[in-house]
Write a structure and sequence with these properties.
heterodimer; A: 412 residues; mainly alpha; Formate dehydrogenase/DMSO reductase fold; two-stranded antiparallel ribbon; B: 300 residues; two-stranded antiparallel sheet; 9 strands; 35% helix; elongated; binds iron/sulfur cluster
Chain lengths: 412, 300
């Protein structure tokens, strides 16, 4: 019997014991966030003049952006290179990217001393500032992501717009509007898809340039002019592992059969990407002769080694192994390692490597900072679950039927 | 072909290309929008002679007074016990004097504050261009633009700007502003004015350099042949003379290239008038178009 994959709504009950736990953690995070808004950053964080940036920047923003890279890498694969079989992975990755970037933006807001001025970069420009470029690109990309997701929302309501009460008269026009919107988006979507990939390449790399200006404050193991390139390659490399990880967890959580063949094919591409990344990382280390720092036993050298060995070398070896690519567990573990590696790399770049010239205390995140970061992640999971329950995002196999292709560009 | 015809596709891609080209046409404007970094030949500076400073901390008091910060009684500043710990400028003290033990000599007292760099990292880094280098040499902060991201703290090589972490609304970035208000009215910076031994000399940076070289030349025993700030990170408006190596006073070891140099050239390399992004866009558009042809053919 021939199967074809069709994006469908998930029908499982929303609350399970685990979901309830996640819900409570998210609430705690939000409560602590309130304290920050009312009493200021110093009240709940360990940030000071020596350590202006903490885990909210390193994890919520820097790692958040990198780990949302699945959105643009699958879009490039499925829509730009037209590798149609990966189509089923594009929607879930798009949703994660959309939620991921939304929380990146929230993370930035929370960390800004004057969060209510977050829109200032739109009118006050500084073309020399790397942060300005990152900020603008992220804002635009977030918009593009919302636009890319819009057809899924529009489609759901077309034909069943039923506004309540006095608004019911508007139901027809709204429906009409949605139809026009859907059609217009259908025709122009490829513009946004390409734009999304370009914007991603730009800010993923610029995030690396961010710390270049810190100069000697940053440990030589990480401080290098090729940081933007390293950030871009590692973001591309972590994109597919993120998709594999999410797909595996979603399958498990919603009781679907894991798409191991497809994920295995995706995994085949991760090996070479990690290889390129490793080559650049090691090459850079030898050109700048920073390997001497690895002979000393310091926090930096240990963290650097962990990042490289467990985050790059081991998963690289795994992704090049046939049996791993065939096993759901193997794929999952290898992907988790890559994700761990990139997360650690961002933490290392922004926190571990950063030592100001006058350091009186060392930085370790406070309970409040951790609670907010963890709370945000939980909230993201909850929203993901909500979205896949209400909108057709995750594909399930159905008997071959007419599958409506998403973008008319590829319709024959 | 599908619902979009080849001609339409090309039309749209061209339209996008034109928009992008239009965007790049406005780039010069965008570059103008970056904060001013005026390097006037007549910019001012201060020469700090650490061999003269007596560590009376009058400058700390005067600085607070001039900036509306609770300063307390000037007599309290005779208290030398604060020297036991190295202090740093903070949101309620833009300048501090520290005392350092040096081998085989009296301890040396050193005043620190913003260096007012000629190529300031804070100006280059600030996301909204809230910092700017003024004609008279001062690097100042514009409250109305700042969003409190603290990237300036990350960027400053001397670890100078500070942030008020305990304010929820309108927290400020604070640092020595070279007494911009006072100097604009022709007054001396408050710290320079009060210094009882003239350890601080205010004047045009070029004149100060001459004075400094002169002093070193005439008293080779009194000074090492190094003016801190003459060339460090591309030169600074505040400069220091000393009897012993500056590393004794915990000054960060910095090269002579401007602090924002590398990051700005990467940044402008990636953006070079929007050419690389547009090229990438075109490339991806091309790939999308070509592979689509292929996948439609296969389907036939
Ligand atoms: S010392 Fe720091 S704050 Fe002062 S001008 Fe230089 S970079 Fe800016
Ligand atoms: S904290 Fe304010 S002054 Fe500093 S970089 Fe951010 S916006 Fe600019
Ligand atoms: S120049 Fe003005 S702001 Fe700067 S340290 Fe002296 S008194 Fe303070």
């Amino acid at each position: 019997m021939e199967h074809s994959f069709v994006p469908s709504q998930m029908t499982k009950k929303y609350f399970t014991p685990w979901v309830t736990v996640i819900f409570i953690i998210a609430l705690i995070g939000l409560a602590i966030l309130m304290l920050r808004l009312v009493f200021g950053l110093g009240f709940i964080t360990n940030l000071d003049n020596q350590h202006p940036w903490g885990i909210w920047i390193a994890i919520d923003v820097a790692a958040g952006v990198a780990l949302a890279a699945g959105g643009f890498t699958t879009a490039a694969l499925g829509h730009i290179m037209h590798k149609d079989k990966y189509e089923v992975l594009v929607r879930p990755a798009l949703l994660t990217a959309m939620l991921g970037y939304t929380f990146v933006a929230l993370g930035v807001c929370v960390d800004l001393g004057r969060y209510y001025s977050v829109w200032h970069p739109l009118i006050y420009w500084n073309g020399n500032s790397v942060l300005f470029e990152v900020g603008i690109c992220v804002m635009f990309y977030l918009t593009v992501l919302y636009i890319e997701f819009l057809p899924i929302v529009a489609k759901k309501f077309i034909g069943n717009v039923n506004l309540p009460g006095i608004l019911s008269g508007l139901s027809k026009p709204v429906d009409k509007f949605l139809r026009i919107l859907y059609k217009a988006l259908d025709k122009t979507m490829f513009i946004f898809i390409i734009m999304g990939v370009v914007l991603s390449c730009l800010h993923q790399s610029s995030l690396g340039t961010l710390m270049v200006i810190a100069g000697p404050k940053m440990h030589p193991l990480w401080q290098t002019p090729v940081l933007p390139l390293l950030f871009l390659i590692s973001a591309i490399a972590v994109g597919f592992p993120m998709v594999i990880m999410e797909s595996t967890i979603a399958s498990k959580s919603f009781g679907l059969k894991p798409e191991t063949d497809l994920l295995g094919d995706l995994g085949k591409m991760v090996g070479p990407l990690l290889g390129v990344y490793l080559a650049f990382k090691v090459g850079d280390m030898f050109i700048r002769e920073t390997f001497v720092y690895l002979t000393e036993l310091t926090t930096e050298s240990v963290m650097f080694s962990i990042e490289l060995i467990f985050g790059v070398v081991v998963p690289l070896r795994m992704f090049l192994t046939k049996s791993v690519l065939k096993s759901p567990t193997g794929l999952f573990i290898a992907s988790m390692l890559v994700i761990f590696g990139v997360l650690l790399n961002r933490i290392n770049n922004f926190l571990v490597a950063y030592t100001p010239p006058y350091e009186k205390v060392t930085y370790f995140p406070s309970f409040g900072e951790i609670a907010v970061t963890v709370g945000f992640i939980c909230l993201e999971i909850l929203l993901y679950r909500l979205f896949v329950t209400y909108f057709p995002v995750i594909s399930v196999p159905v008997e071959k039927s007419l599958q409506d292709s998403k973008y008319s560009l590829k319709r024959a | 072909m599908g619902s979009i015809k080849r001609r339409d596709f090309i039309k749209t891609v061209t339209a996008v290309g034109c928009t992008a080209a239009g965007l790049s046409a406005v780039t010069p404007k965008k570059l103008n929008a970056t904060p001013e970094n005026i390097l006037s030949k007549d910019r001012y500076g201060v020469l700090v002679d650490t061999t003269v400073c007596i560590g009376c901390r009058r400058c700390e008091w005067a600085c607070k007074k001039a900036h509306g910060i609770e300063a307390g009684s000037i007599d309290d500043y005779d208290d030398k016990s604060v020297f036991q710990e190295e202090r740093r400028p903070a949101h309620d003290s833009y300048t501090v004097v520290n005392s350092y033990d040096v081998p085989n000599a009296e301890p040396v007292t050193v005043k620190v504050q913003c260096m007012h760099c000629d190529q300031p990292a804070c100006v280059s880094a600030c996301i909204v261009g809230a910092f700017s280098k003024k004609e008279n040499g001062a690097v100042i902060w514009d409250e109305s633009k700042c969003i409190g991201c603290r990237y300036c703290l990350v960027a400053c090589p001397f670890q100078v700007p500070t942030f008020d972490y305990h304010k929820a609304i309108e927290p400020e970035i604070r640092k020595c502003d070279f007494c911009y208000e006072r100097t604009s009215k022709g007054q001396l910076p408050a710290c320079v004015e009060i210094c009882p031994v003239e350890a601080l000399t205010y004047g045009k940076r070029s004149d100060l350099l001459q004075i400094a070289h002169d002093r070193i030349h005439r008293n080779p025993d009194r000074y090492i042949d190094h003016i801190l700030g003459e060339t460090e990170v591309g030169g600074t408006s505040w400069m220091y003379l000393s009897k012993t190596e500056f590393s004794n006073y915990n000054f960060p070891k910095l090269g002579n290239s401007p602090a924002p140099g590398v990051s700005e050239s990467i940044q402008h390399g990636i953006f070079a008038y929007f050419v690389p992004p547009i090229a990438l866009y075109a490339l991806l558009g091309g790939i999308m178009y070509l592979t689509k042809e292929k996948s439609t053919e296969e389907e036939k």
